[in-house]
């Protein structure tokens, strides 16, 4: 069933992409070893960040609670990483059913961050075999445009570095959790910064593309996820798909990953530094700051709705005059915008008043904010000989040509 | 006692209307969904996205209208009972507002993702769902606007989250439709009197006009951008 909702890749697309690769180009104009831009934004809560990798977007949040440790490791805290394939990211993602992609992402990320011992779990212990901090990293995929894993690994790592846990003091049997205003929160100890980097492999290793997009992921024979930290130490390796790979290709990719990992980690550290300095200056932080709130509309309201509705649909595709400001002004001359009650407006073309009366009465007792625009406009303006619409000119031209024919 | 509290309320309402709500939104922030929006009320932020109409599961298919798959995702952890409850509120609202009968045997996927909660989460999520629907251009019977009204312990009503959250005694959430301004959803939390509720409804109705106006402006700007680009 969910297959139907997937973005299907046609043979045309596939062949075109492969043809482009043979000519050393990618569809988005990147070179083979080029990555998409990384952008990191932070939320107001500690441990909350939003990471963009090109158009792929991921939201990560770290939460902590106090739990009983595992009996096998009584002095270690607990770290859980959970990637959620949010149905906002793609229509075929279903939160209730766990598919292969879900399992693979979770396991690879766990290998990258947890199994590489990047986080110091011993420091999360409050009391041996009784109380430890259990951290949970929730990674929500918001927009799937290929290469979720790289994006998710950056987000998870950044969120962990950004997270602050409340201070806990032990007083004999009683342990007190201090609020943030009582004692400064404590950051988590991060030993090293491992990130996942993905390469797609085409035509048995003939073409190797860094940071594949959704289409490239679909066409590729196989993919290689390499987790590496800034010291170029390998933390994980996952080869999926069905390509035969030479050892030297593998080594070549790993060397490339090393260079890239340094850049990515540098970028993460810079973003965190910037964020910390903003927090210490007590600037307003949070996602709401990233959305502009200019209340005035750049151009006046009427013009906007005029050009939206009056222009006949045919013109939208055929003529370039559509965008020209001259046309808009001409339309404004012939038409009127009239306010009817609170928050509603009527667009009246010349010689149109009589038709309006029928439905105009309704809007007075409404709080309606829908701007209702009579549907008859195009036909009326066609009949109206005074109108300066282009279509009428065309009609006249036809008549003229007809007259010419008669002559 | 009740008398005095009402008079203080009335005094307070005049202040409320002068204050403009801090609303922000940005359309088309995600490339995959058919319609998407990031919407903020004060500091509360959510992202909403809509796909549809798309192919429907056989088990969920409705022969007379579209099935609405509503997903409300909390920022952290698995969705709790509370989140399911919010999901249901938004779903019911969208079901009444969307012209589902136009798409029988299909489904519409609406997802709301919490980004930051500062108290107005439900109203923010509902408004975001409406804006996402508008952005996608799916057929609707009417648009809807939601507003949260906070009753503090001193008996005052606020349309914005009070600074100290411990003072909140009750929260009213109302959703109004755009055609007649009727209430479609009423959700309350906490302890309050009938008078408080009526007063809250009155203030919320006034406040909702601001939200409708905001939606209209934002849509106008979006149309403008679409035409010029």
Automatic annotation (TrEMBL), chain A:
<dbReference type="GO" id="GO:0000177">
    <property type="term" value="C:cytoplasmic exosome (RNase complex)"/>
</dbReference>
<keyword id="KW-0963">Cytoplasm</keyword>
<dbReference type="GO" id="GO:0071038">
    <property type="term" value="P:TRAMP-dependent tRNA surveillance pathway"/>
</dbReference>
<dbReference type="GO" id="GO:0000467">
    <property type="term" value="P:exonucleolytic trimming to generate mature 3'-end of 5.8S rRNA from tricistronic rRNA transcript (SSU-rRNA, 5.8S rRNA, LSU-rRNA)"/>
</dbReference>
<feature type="domain" description="Exoribonuclease phosphorolytic">
    <location>
        <begin position="34"/>
        <end position="166"/>
    </location>
</feature>
<keyword id="KW-0698">rRNA processing</keyword>
<keyword id="KW-0694">RNA-binding</keyword>
<dbReference type="GO" id="GO:0000176">
    <property type="term" value="C:nuclear exosome (RNase complex)"/>
</dbReference>
<dbReference type="InterPro" id="IPR027408">
    <property type="entry name" value="PNPase/RNase_PH_dom_sf"/>
</dbReference>
<dbReference type="InterPro" id="IPR001247">
    <property type="entry name" value="ExoRNase_PH_dom1"/>
</dbReference>
<keyword id="KW-0271">Exosome</keyword>
<dbReference type="GO" id="GO:0035925">
    <property type="term" value="F:mRNA 3'-UTR AU-rich region binding"/>
</dbReference>
<dbReference type="InterPro" id="IPR033100">
    <property type="entry name" value="Rrp45"/>
</dbReference>
<dbReference type="GO" id="GO:0005730">
    <property type="term" value="C:nucleolus"/>
</dbReference>
<comment type="similarity">
    <text>Belongs to the RNase PH family.</text>
</comment>
<dbReference type="Pfam" id="PF03725">
    <property type="entry name" value="RNase_PH_C"/>
</dbReference>
<dbReference type="GO" id="GO:0034476">
    <property type="term" value="P:U5 snRNA 3'-end processing"/>
</dbReference>
<dbReference type="InterPro" id="IPR020568">
    <property type="entry name" value="Ribosomal_Su5_D2-typ_SF"/>
</dbReference>
<keyword id="KW-0539">Nucleus</keyword>
<dbReference type="GO" id="GO:0071028">
    <property type="term" value="P:nuclear mRNA surveillance"/>
</dbReference>
<protein>
    <recommendedName>
        <fullName>Exosome complex component RRP45</fullName>
    </recommendedName>
</protein>
<feature type="domain" description="Exoribonuclease phosphorolytic">
    <location>
        <begin position="192"/>
        <end position="252"/>
    </location>
</feature>
From TrEMBL, chain B:
<dbReference type="GO" id="GO:0003723">
    <property type="term" value="F:RNA binding"/>
</dbReference>
<feature type="domain" description="Exoribonuclease phosphorolytic">
    <location>
        <begin position="23"/>
        <end position="138"/>
    </location>
</feature>
<dbReference type="GO" id="GO:0006364">
    <property type="term" value="P:rRNA processing"/>
</dbReference>
<dbReference type="InterPro" id="IPR050080">
    <property type="entry name" value="RNase_PH"/>
</dbReference>
<dbReference type="InterPro" id="IPR001247">
    <property type="entry name" value="ExoRNase_PH_dom1"/>
</dbReference>
<dbReference type="GO" id="GO:0034475">
    <property type="term" value="P:U4 snRNA 3'-end processing"/>
</dbReference>
<comment type="similarity">
    <text>Belongs to the RNase PH family.</text>
</comment>
<dbReference type="GO" id="GO:0071028">
    <property type="term" value="P:nuclear mRNA surveillance"/>
</dbReference>
<keyword id="KW-0698">rRNA processing</keyword>
<dbReference type="InterPro" id="IPR020568">
    <property type="entry name" value="Ribosomal_Su5_D2-typ_SF"/>
</dbReference>
<dbReference type="GO" id="GO:0000176">
    <property type="term" value="C:nuclear exosome (RNase complex)"/>
</dbReference>
<keyword id="KW-0539">Nucleus</keyword>
<dbReference type="Pfam" id="PF01138">
    <property type="entry name" value="RNase_PH"/>
</dbReference>
<dbReference type="GO" id="GO:0071051">
    <property type="term" value="P:poly(A)-dependent snoRNA 3'-end processing"/>
</dbReference>
<dbReference type="GO" id="GO:0016075">
    <property type="term" value="P:rRNA catabolic process"/>
</dbReference>
<dbReference type="InterPro" id="IPR027408">
    <property type="entry name" value="PNPase/RNase_PH_dom_sf"/>
</dbReference>
<dbReference type="GO" id="GO:0005730">
    <property type="term" value="C:nucleolus"/>
</dbReference>
<dbReference type="GO" id="GO:0000177">
    <property type="term" value="C:cytoplasmic exosome (RNase complex)"/>
</dbReference>
<protein>
    <recommendedName>
        <fullName>Exoribonuclease phosphorolytic domain-containing protein</fullName>
    </recommendedName>
</protein>
<keyword id="KW-0271">Exosome</keyword>
<dbReference type="InterPro" id="IPR036345">
    <property type="entry name" value="ExoRNase_PH_dom2_sf"/>
</dbReference>
